[in-house]
Design brief:
224 residues; alpha/beta; TIM Barrel; eight-stranded parallel beta barrel; 46% helix
Length: 224
């Protein structure tokens, strides 16, 4: 891993914020709420919006990136390698159906490459061999965003952290203020979430509370 990628990877810590699916008229309000969350101490945002057209995605991603850059947060694009390359994003995240991991690494040599590994360590091994930096496991809890998602036990996070010491382990699925400390205590470097921030009346306060809870779990993990 290059020094630039290593520096970015080390910043993947705590809350990993994903943008919610919103219709175009609600996008400006989402940006306002995103700004409040980043000001609350979140250092990473991934742009995703399954309701947007391809043209809208390009325009929306650029606006999310501008807010992230202004506030010093990492900016990652979901699913779309070419959009990440076009914007010069800090990274891209790929699911099972989002293209070849090795090809994405070749296309974005200095960017972070995240891969969804679900509950599958063999998939994580293949992803690492292809150049992945971030390994996402989940759903660790029942998820309202993806109610049919496979479940990944908390113990898998520690297994992944032990096996892949050079990668960052990301937990996803159903994470909120009541359980985020369990995720970090189990070994995750970061916790990916949406509604625990965007579904609250005060995203900034929610961000600060979630970060504190994550840190408490990290302290438990390091003391074990």
């Amino acid at each position: 891993m290059s020094t630039e990628r290593s520096d970015r990877a080390r910043r993947v810590q705590g809350v990993y914020l994903l943008t919610p699916d919103v219709a175009a008229p609600q996008f400006a309000d989402m940006l306002t709420r995103l700004r409040a969350a980043l000001l609350g101490g979140i250092a990473l945002v991934q742009y995703r919006n399954k309701l947007a057209s391809r043209a809208d995605c390009r325009a929306q991603a650029a606006r999310v990136q501008a807010v992230a850059r202004e506030l010093g947060a990492l900016f990652i694009v979901n699913d779309d390698v070419e959009l990440a390359a076009h914007l010069g994003a800090d990274g891209v995240h790929l699911g099972r159906e989002d293209g070849d991991i090795a090809a994405a690494r070749a296309r974005l040599p200095q960017a972070l490459l995240g891969v969804s590994c679900y509950n599958e360590l063999p998939r994580a091994r293949r992803a690492v061999e292809a150049g992945a930096d971030l390994l996402a496991f989940g759903s660790v809890f029942a998820s309202s965003t993806k109610p049919g998602a496979v479940r990944a036990p908390l113990a898998l996070l520690q297994q992944a952290r032990d096996e892949f010491p050079a990668q960052r382990i990301v937990a996803i699925g159903g994470i909120d203020a009541a359980n985020i400390d369990a995720v970090s205590a189990a070994g995750a470097h970061a916790a990916a979430l949406i509604s625990a921030i965007f579904g609250t009346p005060d995203p900034g306060a929610a961000a600060r509370h979630l970060q504190r809870q994550f840190l408490q779990g990290t302290t438990q993990h390091e003391s074990q």
